[in-house]
Specification:
By secondary structure, the protein is an alpha/beta fold. It is built from 15 helices and twelve strands.
């Protein structure tokens, strides 16, 4: 048992190297670098921010919407987006997601037309929203793209962050380039870019002590997220690190740390390579799970190319999800039920109902490990752990209906993928 724990597969990859750590330490006594290595995200003006959620807050402020304007966003997403909207002085309007692709539903957005003054599109897990449909439903209202999960994902050869008036990215620990924190805003409108530049210049600088603490914390986290140590240290520490929100991005008016910016620039240089490896792992995992009945797998939208930031799988219900997660850890393969608490969190921001797909997905979704550092045999092991755990649970539920359960939620699509 102990030997197996030394070969556990973490739920997320954390490719933060010793060289990244050294660069972060050097940056503590250097000037903030320019985001010069981010040409891969297009030619529009780019601005460092303290986090992805801070970027959204600042972009909304730069739009100069009337106070208490309504901003539409998908219910199933990171609840911090709703918090950023409120912090900017506006009101979230929650709309539902598409059941197959898990991104904002153009029909749901269209039904809310006239009730919002701006739209936030979330390309969740690297999936691409139906941008032509969304932009049509949004009409002339400003559209902001959350591309934190979707760098280099594209729709009809247009990158995720190139749509709308502006987009933003994140360098938090669980993102594709985990510099430890910070974010990047990319603005396609010159007037909004000029306003945003002024807002960012007014941010206060992080304290040197806080910068050093966060560099050390990120270095330690990268060590315990390695395969050799995750089962012994990383997973047992998850409960209290999540509770204490260590290294969690903050929604404040503090500028990006120099260390985060320096490491993000380094990681951008090897980013395209990582995406290709992670795509290959994800496509391998898709092929291994293709014949699984009554699950929804992350198949690419026609015309889209995903970076497969995460690999979400929808199972029957909450009980099946929890059983599969527990079963997979018995094989020392960790999983995540990311955003499972999003619905309850969003009730604090005014959600009262009307998004049945989002509510269903939040209770049934798990993500499987697919990160670029995993080998082909690791991916085979992930698939085996999932299938064995799923079959064991379903075999124990002999009276559980196998067919027709998708009808519980209007519009929910179930298919054998």
């Amino acid at each position: 048992m102990l030997t197996a724990r030394f070969n556990s597969i973490p739920r997320f990859g954390l490719p933060y190297t010793a060289s990244d750590f050294a660069a972060a330490l050097r940056a503590l006594t250097s000037d903030l670098p320019r985001p010069h290595t981010f040409g891969l995200l297009g030619a529009s003006p780019k601005f460092w921010t303290g986090s992805g959620r801070q970027a959204l807050r600042l972009i909304l402020t730069a739009l100069q919407l009337p106070s208490a304007s309504s901003v539409a966003l998908p219910l199933f997403a990171d609840p911090s987006l709703a918090a950023a909207i409120v912090a900017a002085g506006h009101v979230p309007v929650f709309v539902d997601i598409e059941p197959e692709f898990l991104t904002i539903c153009p029909e749901s957005l269209n039904a809310a037309r006239g009730k919002f003054d701006a739209v936030v599109v979330v390309n969740l897990f690297g999936h691409l929203a139906d941008m032509p449909g969304v932009l049509s439903a949004a009409d002339s209202t400003p559209t902001i793209v959350d591309a934190a999960h979707a760098p280099l994902s594209s729709f009809c050869s247009v990158q995720a962050g190139d749509f709308g008036v502006a987009s933003f990215y994140s360098f938090a620990s669980t993102k594709y380039w985990p510099a430890g924190g910070g974010g990047l805003a990319v603005v396609h409108d010159s007037t909004v870019a000029s306003r945003l530049d002024g807002l960012i210049r007014s941010l206060s600088a992080p304290s040197p002590l806080q910068e050093l603490r966060n560099v050390l914390m990120q270095g330690a986290k990268s060590i315990v997220f390695s395969k050799r140590l995750y089962g012994i240290f990383g997973r047992p520490m998850r409960r209290w690190t999540d509770e204490w929100a260590l290294l969690e991005p903050r929604l404040d008016q503090v500028a990006i740390q120099r260390s985060y910016a320096a490491v993000a620039c380094r990681q951008a240089l090897r980013f395209a390579w990582r995406v290709e490896y992670q795509r290959a792992n994800s496509l391998r995992l898709l092929s291994l799970l293709a014949d699984t009945e009554d699950v929804v797998l992350p198949k690419e939208r026609p015309g889209a190319r995903y970076n497969y930031h995460l690999f979400p799988v929808l199972v029957r219900d909450r009980m099946e999800r929890d059983a599969v997660m527990s079963g997979m850890w018995s094989y020392h393969v960790d999983t995540s039920k990311i955003y499972s608490g999003a619905i309850e969190e969003c009730r604090r921001f005014g959600y009262t109902g009307g998004c049945p797909i989002s509510e269903s997905v939040a209770s049934r979704l798990i993500t499987l490990p697919n990160h670029a550092s995993l080998t082909g045999s690791d991916i085979d092991r992930v698939a085996d752990a999932f299938l064995c755990s799923l079959r064991a649970w379903r075999s124990s539920q002999r009276n559980y209906p196998v067919h027709g359960f998708g009808a519980r939620v209007p519009g929910l699509i179930w298919r054998q993928t």
